[in-house]
Amino acid sequence: MGLCDAIVKAARSRARGRRVSEVKVRVGGHPVDPEVVDQGFRLAAAGTELEGAGLDLVMEPLSVHCRGCGGSTPVESARTLAACPRCGGVDVEACGRDDVVLESITVDPEAEAGAEAAAGARGGAR
């Protein structure tokens, strides 16, 4: 749940109290099950302005470059990180991003319009 809690925390910080309808997250290198992350996200978002928001996960798996045969292969298991699946060589290097990035949030348009109207009313009362 740590990953999901972090996604919700970052999205709530950007949302600043506005209702969110969609969250887009890029996951690089981490072998995660999208269904498990989606379920954890829904649990972490319950009772917040993200409750009911969709989660768009963009997966970017690591790849392994073999210095022996020169081949590059996407990492599909821990075994791939240890030996080249093409030639069996062990002189391999992991390549790619190994991070999680909150790329964007989509604020519910109705909530956005309500927030703008409220801000305008406060500004006009000065």
Folded structure, characterized:
There is one protein chain. The chain is an alpha+beta fold and 126 residues long. It has one domain (2-108): 2-Layer Sandwich (hypothetical protein PF0899 fold), CATH 3.30.2320.50. The protein is built from four helices and six strands, in the order H-E-H-E-E-E-H-E-E-H. The protein has helices at 2-15, 34-45, 78-82, 109-124; strands at residues 20-28, 54-60, 63-66, 72-74, 92-95, 100-107. A three-stranded mixed β-sheet has the order 2-1-6. Strand 1, helix 2 (34-45) and strand 2 form a beta-alpha-beta unit. Helix 1 (2-15) packs across helix 2 (34-45). The longest helix is centred in the C-terminal third of the chain and has 16 residues, at 109-124. The model has no long low-confidence stretch (mean pLDDT 87). Keywords: Metal-binding, Nickel, Zinc.
List keywords for this structure.
126 residues; alpha+beta; hypothetical protein PF0899 fold; three-stranded mixed beta sheet; 4 helices; 6 strands; metal-binding
Could you provide a short overview of the structure?
The chain has 126 residues and is of the alpha+beta class. Helices cover 37% and strands 28% of the residues. The model has no long low-confidence stretch (mean pLDDT 87).
Q: Overall 3D geometry?
A: elongated
Q: In angstroms, what separates the terminal alpha carbons?
A: 45 Å
Mean pLDDT: 87
Oligomer description = single chain
H/I helix tally: 4
Q: Secondary-structure element sequence?
A: HEHEEEHEEH
CATH fold title: hypothetical protein PF0899 fold
Strand order of the largest sheet: 2-1-6
Q: Which class of secondary structure composition applies to the elements?
A: alpha+beta
The CATH class name reads Alpha Beta
Radius of gyration: 21 Å
CATH architecture: 2-Layer Sandwich
Number-wise, the strands total 6
Summed up, the domain count is 1
